[in-house]
Amino acid sequence: MRERPRLRRLTKNGRRDLGAGLLFSLPFIIGFLAFTLYPMLASLIYSFQHYNGMDEQWWVGLRNYLYLIQSDDAFHGAVYNTAYMVIIGVPLTLLVGFGTAVLLNLPVRGQALYRSALVLPAFLPLVPIAMLWNWMFSADNGIVNLVLGWVRLPQPGWLIDPSWSRPTLILLNLWTGGTVTIIYLAALQDVPEALYEAASLDGAGWWSRLRLVTIPLVSSATFFNLITGTVAMFQLFAPAYVISLDTNNNVAVGAPQGSLVFYLIYLWQQAFADARIGYASAVAWLLFLVIMTITALLFVGARRWVYYAGEAG
Q1: Neighbours of 301 (CB within 10 A)
Q2: Which pLDDT belongs to residue 220?
Q3: DSSP for 274-309, written as a single string
Q4: What is the DSSP letter of 124?
């Protein structure tokens, strides 16, 4: 019977190196404990309490969670708006990002200029971009409706009509989706040219090479963009907050008619506008559980369609 290997005791130099490593890690450890772990544990406790930050708190058990799921119509509206953005916005972002990367990968003159122009919006601050978007898509004097009027096309109420406000925000997300394009572009440049040549010799046309070679070999980039895009869309806040404020003359966050009240905006309203900290903590933890569940399901499903370079075929 094989004996278990014994753990070797650290030498003097090993203990010194371990101490030095812990010392250099100490700022991160302290920051993690004070600003991440403690707030998380505190919010978990608050989620089972009635607490507004001023009065005495008391235990309510699962009442916050049950009211959220069963009776809070405003919360249900925020969930619907967020699901709309995730189900429609994330696939569109992946599709546009991939298509843009394929175009930017073509060997044409001025390639660096095109890449910079299409990727630059992703690195601009979100608040000025949202204000710019609000001006461009203004129903009264926005440049988009002016152009549509010149060519005799309908001029929607982009940010004052509930049926158009979410699509307008999706357009903003597509315009600022340069990081998705960058990741796809890097993945495209790693696809071996020999595979394209072999597919061409077999008679595969452009579409067949794209479908049978390119898309499978960039599936790891698709998976990464899918995960990060889904998590980011669940946490959509700044653009919707700024646009809805300006659109409704600073009257109500989430205008028009609550169509821009997303999950994180609803969480902000409960915690900071209404001072319902216990209830907001329940909202936050429910979001955490939903994101973790969806991420886990995506990882499980990825085994069927994600290819990583170096895997045995």
Answers
A1: 11
A2: 93
A3: S--HHHHHHHHHHHHHHHHHHHHHHHHHHTTT---T
A4: S
